[in-house]
């Protein structure tokens, strides 16, 4: 069952007729070059966890999720999909471990079938049937293939390896014979040949800019470690080029020891958001996940479903 958090906010109305102008990010005209040291985030245990109503949402199989501390999210940091109204009289339903408000488009989220279709090294060679798609990208060793396998509940749909950099093409997986998950090459793998890294950068950026059926890029960030400059720069590039983006924080099950200077995933998640908030006017949607525990799996599927159904209807 996917879980939601009720969150009271002041009256507000949010509409949009364009998926790409208001649904995602509006970048500030700044260059992302440096880090900042931020204080740990504060959390609240007052939010209520409730199951989603069966009348409007897909029913999921029960999965075992770890106990989580509900995050305290300010109203201005919520991601409110278009065609969605929230008010103090009707508190929004927020997907657990995220800032995403659930909309009326969250339906048909369950995955029934998943199959590998093809690998491509240029955008023009990708499937041309016009189906909507979601691209997964992140720094090498962020757990991208593991997350994809977790989403579809298949251990070996996407190739995983202890050696980073195995994904070298644009890999399309057809879901429910109606939409695609796309596995893209990881970035920042130091051992890859310079020419190969240049090729990856070239065809992935061309894909982002010219793929008309791309609904959203899911940018994976390792929440078990502090923010990396390359991740911040990648997020900044996507925003500056008006590429729709959802941030997926991975490895949220890992707990670093405080005595060794480590931070909890929730703190690294908040730090990353604080850093990118200086460069973007609008808050991107984000979700905390773990491929080990399947944390965030149902939430990702619900978020994808509402993005996909809105895209199909507009």
From TrEMBL:
- Keyword hit for Repeat: no
Q: What are the EngB-type G domain coordinates in residue numbering?
A: 130-310
One Gene Ontology MF term? metal ion binding
Q: Which InterPro entries match?
A: G_ENGB_dom, GTP-bd, GTP-bd_ribosome_bio_YsxC, P-loop_NTPase
CDD domains to which the protein is assigned, alphabetical: YihA_EngB
Superkingdom, natural source: Eukaryota
Per UniProt, the keywords (alphabetical) are: Cell cycle, Cell division, GTP-binding, Magnesium, Metal-binding, Nucleotide-binding, Septation
Q: Which PROSITE patterns match?
A: G_ENGB (PS51706)
Q: Which PANTHER family match?
A: ENGB-TYPE G DOMAIN-CONTAINING PROTEIN, MSS1/TRME-RELATED GTP-BINDING PROTEIN
Q: What is this protein called?
A: EngB-type G domain-containing protein
Species name: Lactuca virosa
């Amino acid at each position: 069952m996917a879980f939601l958090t009720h969150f009271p906010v002041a009256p507000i109305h949010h509409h949009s007729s364009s998926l790409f102008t208001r649904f995602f990010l509006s970048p500030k005209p700044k260059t992302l070059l440096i880090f900042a040291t931020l204080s740990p985030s504060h959390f609240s245990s007052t939010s209520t966890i409730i199951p989603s109503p069966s009348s409007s949402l897909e029913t999921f199989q029960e999965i075992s999720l770890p106990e989580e501390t509900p995050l305290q999210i300010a109203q201005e940091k919520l991601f409110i999909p278009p065609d969605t109204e929230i008010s103090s009289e009707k508190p929004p339903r927020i997907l657990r471990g995220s800032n995403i408000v659930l909309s009326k488009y969250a339906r048909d989220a369950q995955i029934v079938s998943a199959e590998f279709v093809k690998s491509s090294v240029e955008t023009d060679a990708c499937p041309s049937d016009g189906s909507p798609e979601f691209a997964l990208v992140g720094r090498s060793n962020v757990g991208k293939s593991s997350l994809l396998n977790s989403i579809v509940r298949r251990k070996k749909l996407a190739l995983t390896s202890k050696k980073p950099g195995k994904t070298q093409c644009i890999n399309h997986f057809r879901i429910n014979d109606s939409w695609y998950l796309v596995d893209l090459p990881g970035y920042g793998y130091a051992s890859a040949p310079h020419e190969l890294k240049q090729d990856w950068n070239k065809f992935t950026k061309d894909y982002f800019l010219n793929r008309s059926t791309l609904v959203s890029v899911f940018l994976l960030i390792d929440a078990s470690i502090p923010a990396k400059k390359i991740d911040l720069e990648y997020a900044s590039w996507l925003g500056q080029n008006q590429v729709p983006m959802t941030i997926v924080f991975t490895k949220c099950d890992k707990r670093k020891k405080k005595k060794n200077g480590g931070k909890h995933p929730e703190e690294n998640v908040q730090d990353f958001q604080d850093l990118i908030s200086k460069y973007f006017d609008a808050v991107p949607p984000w979700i905390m996940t773990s491929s080990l525990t399947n944390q965030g799996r149902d939430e990702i599927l619900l978020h994808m479903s509402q993005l996909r159904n809105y895209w199909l209807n507009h």
